[in-house]
Specification:
Residues 1-21 form the signal peptide. This is PLAT domain-containing protein 3-like. Keywords: Signal. InterPro entries: Embryo-specific_ATS3 (IPR010417), PLAT/LH2_dom (IPR001024), PLAT/LH2_dom_sf (IPR036392). The protein has helices spanning 2-24, 156-161; strands at residues 27-36, 48-54, 59-62, 83-91, 97-104, 113-123, 130-140, 150-154, 166-168, 173-177. The chain is elongated. 31% of the residues are buried. By secondary structure, the chain is an alpha+beta fold. The longest helix is centred in the N-terminal third of the chain and has 23 residues, at 2-24. A hairpin with a 6-residue loop joins strand 6 (113-123) and strand 7 (130-140). The protein has a single domain (26-177), classed as PLAT/LH2 domain (Lipoxygenase-1), CATH 2.60.60.20.
Length: 185
Amino acid sequence: MAPRCLFFSLIFIALFLSALARNTKEKCVYTFYVKTGSVLKGGTDAIISVTISDANGQSVEIADLESWGLMEKNHDYFERDNVDIFSGRGPCIEAPLCRLNLTSDGSGAHHGWFCDYLEVTSTGPHRSCSQTAFYVDQWLATDAPPFQLTTILDGCDDWIKGHEASRHTSRGKLVVSGSKGSASL
């Protein structure tokens, strides 16, 4: 009787570990809508990188967002008053996505960039769709205020505490606002 019990215990452990290993390899789909501002010289030729994170500190980093671009061939991304669409697969992290690190490398003839907003949608196997809007509303430039090539919008603490600055709206979207001070949709 003992060998049979041991056999089934080993099978159970093996199945549990294989299921655990499979879950760590799951990939989620992330789709970004990025709106460049309508201000003069708001577009850029720089390389834009994005890191999105959840409240647990897990993150997905895209070193060159343009490499995930879905627009037509030879499209000029991050140009004035355009909405560009990007999509790719990355490791699954928890919803909501509440932290954004948006960075320009400052390269190219037109290095400065004014980002209005970035909206990200994520979904994956056995997961509901999650959507977050980050209202950046600032320059990523060394020659325009706030004279930085990186901005970080973090609504994770407010989300955890249930405060107003970041919340789910009636449409189920987490909203994180930067320089405007509060979030609403």
